[in-house]
Design goal:
The chain has 96 residues and is mainly α. It contains four helices and no strands. α2 packs across α3.
Length: 96
Amino acid sequence: MFKNDINSLALMGYQAPKIEINTKEDRLLKEQTDNFEAFFVKQVLDIALKDKSTLFPKDSGDKIYQSMYNDTMSQEFSGSFGFSELLFNFLKENAK
């Protein structure tokens, strides 16, 4: 594809093909790619919210609470950013 084609697809709201989970191996692979996406999102949240969040008051456990919050948020967000789907499709195609 040329650069203009990619830009056109982005502007048109390109939707990647949906994942088809047919086997136990597909389900396990999807679970692992979701976990990877959650890890990636947690790393981004840890950096983005470092020392800038007023969600938790400054006390002896604020860093623990912030980490737990980021972990929970990343688990909830996993599978919704498209990284998991992209990685799943790549691994599934290249496993053949």
